[in-house]
Amino acid sequence: MNTLLTAPTASPSPDSTSTSTSTSAPAAAGWHWPHFAEVLCGTGTDQERLGLPAHYLELPLRQALASAHARWRCASVEELLIQLSASDAPLADRLACGNLLALAGDPRIRTTQPEMRDIPGGTIDIGLPSSAVDQVLQEFSGLGLNRIWIDKETPRHSVQLQSFRMARFPVTNSEYRDFLCATGYSEIPSSWSFRQFPLERANHPVYTVSAAAADAYAQWLAQRTGRGFRLPSEAEWEWAASGPQHSVFPWGRQFDPALCNTAESGLLSSSSVGAFVGGESAFGLSDMGGNVEEYVADNYAAYPGGSWVADHLVEIHGNYRVARGGSFARFRDLARNQRRHGHNPRSAAYAMGFRLAESL
């Protein structure tokens, strides 16, 4: 049976340097697993950056979704919720149930009462040891990486954090719509066709918004509720994603395409929040890897003891807001907890969203 229809039992590991393990096996299992020989930034089209052919290609997960929607279209909201959170349910079924919940009304999405998780403070180590850069480049070879992008993550260093809360899910289209209706704010996501709210994606993360819009949303919700909502700092985001074990991905050491909505899944669109069961961080946060990239509160700066990296984002913006977590339109390297990224306006394949933090 195709592993996209059931959770895969042997997903590829970035620890392996075998060509057959890093390319052939995942592709044979139905995952989208192209290999790029050169650095991708600034070259080619989005189609080429995603490793897609010139002709129309419907990847296996997309094919499975059609029959899954048919199976669940008459289910009740309660049945959809149960299936969406079932770890043993086929991925296509969970995705379909999430989509159907968007139309039925998803009770998990509460604009003024987002589900928050407590994150303990303390002295926290973040970043990547400088000695690990070569290992990362080797483990993620074939993804067109530039060494300086990984250099930005160095060195590992300690920061002091106060306890805080983090939202279980990124902010959704439905919540952003409530913000627009309440405030008249002018920035409508470009992912909303003809500037209209996408009801069928109500419980998907909002994306193609600016960092300024993310800040404005957090300020509005804080004022409306009297609570300390804001965007997380970069250090808070990484700690909430990696946890006490300093995991490489929110769920652990090895990449698993069944646990996050990155380009490897072949979905190549956003998904209902929480549909990739098993991909949660140690603190129970969903979609920290993949789905949409998440702005944090900080602009890019070199880490203490590190060097300033003048990469393409600096060339484009000068000063830019950091984003974390990767997305459905980016590959697995951007889903690493330590990866520091940002918005490239020259590419449509940057799905920029955000998640709330809360000061205690």
Characterization of the model:
The protein is α+β, with helices and mostly antiparallel strands. It has one domain (19-359): paralog of FGE (formylglycine-generating enzyme) (Alpha-Beta Complex), CATH 3.90.1580.10. The protein is built from eleven helices and nine strands. It has helices at residues 19-28, 46-49, 60-72, 77-84, 91-104, 133-139, 147-151, 173-183, 211-225, 234-242, 312-317, and strands at 116-119, 122-126, 157-161, 164-167, 228-230, 293-299, 321-324, 352-354, 357-359. The strands form three sheets. A four-stranded antiparallel β-sheet has the order 1-4-9-5. It has a three-stranded mixed β-sheet with strand order 7-6-8. Helix 3 (60-72) packs across helix 5 (91-104) and helix 4 runs antiparallel to helix 5.
Count of DSSP-assigned helices: 11
Taken in chain order, the helices and strands follow as HHHHHEEHHEEHHEHEHEEE
By CATH, the architecture is named Alpha-Beta Complex
Shape by Cα distribution: globular
Averaging pLDDT over every residue, what do you get? 90
Total beta strands: 9
Radius of gyration of CA atoms, rounded to a whole number: 19 Å
Distance between the termini: 48 Å
Broad CATH class: Alpha Beta
Proportion in β-strands? 5-15%
Task: Determine the CATH topology.
Answer: paralog of FGE (formylglycine-generating enzyme)
- Major sheet, described briefly? 4 strands, antiparallel
Kindly report the name of the CATH homologous superfamily. Answer: paralog of FGE (formylglycine-generating enzyme)
How would you describe the oligomerization state of the chains in this entry? single chain
Strand order of the largest sheet: 1-4-9-5
Provide the low-confidence segments as ranges. Answer: 1-24
Number of domains: 1
Question: Which bin fits the share of residues in helices?
Answer: 25-40%
Instruction: Quickly give the structural class.
Output: alpha+beta
